[in-house]
Amino acid sequence: MTQPILELQELDVFYGPIQALKKVSLHINEGETVSLIGSNGAGKSTLLMSIFGQPRAAGGKILYQGVDITHKSSHYIASNGIAQSPEGRRVFPDMTVEENLLMGTIPIGDKYAKEDMQRMFELFPRLEERRTQRAMTMSGGEQQMLAIARALMSRPKLLLLDEPSLGLAPIVVKQIFATLRELAQTGMTIFLVEQNANHALRLSDRAYVMVNGEIRMAGTGKELLVNEDVRSAYLGGH
After folding, report:
1. Residue 1: is its pLDDT beyond 80?
2. CDD domains from the entry (predicted)?
3. Whole-angstrom Cα Rg for the chain
4. What is the pLDDT of residues 19-32, one digit of tens each?
């Protein structure tokens, strides 16, 4: 059996006295798209951030390609092939699209910057139209595209996406998920944290459901889409 590219083993994470994650175990295989769904405040974003050590795990292990990275620096993790597109986009507002994309090359250097930037413009044509525009002047959807593209500029082996549909119009959400599907079809390994369970489960090979900092359910995307508990809690009964 092949080793997962990422494995969390009984992860405990605290914010001060409050336990945010409780004995969380999950794994992601190379080439898979795996999503983590759950209500707002369930601990999904905390889990994603803890992979980068912010916050640090108080117990358990995080293994990446079989190596224990639980206490490694964020720079070590980024330069070894994990990239994150954070919740709320967090682009550099005063920088242009091109400058933001170049920031994504910091973990690996700019050797491939020119060809990778062209690839980002093919993936997100809107960004090419806005290449000299400052990020702060762009729409929320354009900023989300930029955040994902910036993460991809480090040529990651594993892409972490935190709530990519948050606050976006339905038509833009469709565009974002169509691009994610395109990425998945190229063999990119994706770990997606998402409140929009319908889109997430349709995209995913497998998924986990988080409730109050614990994994309560797991299965294929198709299985969870038709699961009655998941439908009533996260899909509005549809």
Report:
1. no
2. ABC_TM1139_LivF_branched
3. 17
4. 999 999 999 999 99
Could you tell me if residue 98 is inside a domain?
yes
pTM: 0.93
CATH number at 55 reads 3.40.50.300
* Interval 142-200: pLDDT, tens: 999 999 999 999 999 999 999 999 889 999 999 999 999 999 999 999 999 998 999 99
Residue recorded with tokens 């497998």 = 206
- Residue 6 confidence (pLDDT): 98
State whether 5 and 66 are in the same domain. yes
Which uninterrupted H or E stretch holds 9? Answer: strand 6-15
DSSP 213: T
Name the token pair of 186.
Answer: 């190229």
> Could you tell me the residue range of the domain that residue 39 belongs to?
1-81+159-172+189-237
Same domain, 10 and 62: yes
Scanning the structure block, which residue is given the tokens 């795990």? 57
Going by DSSP bridges, is the β-strand pair 206-211/33-37 parallel, antiparallel, or unpaired?
A: parallel
Q: Which two tokens stand for residue 202?
A: 């349709």
Q: Helices in 64-187 by DSSP H: which ranges?
A: 74-79, 97-103, 113-123, 125-129, 140-152, 170-185
> Which SS3 state, helix, strand or coil, does residue 193 take?
strand
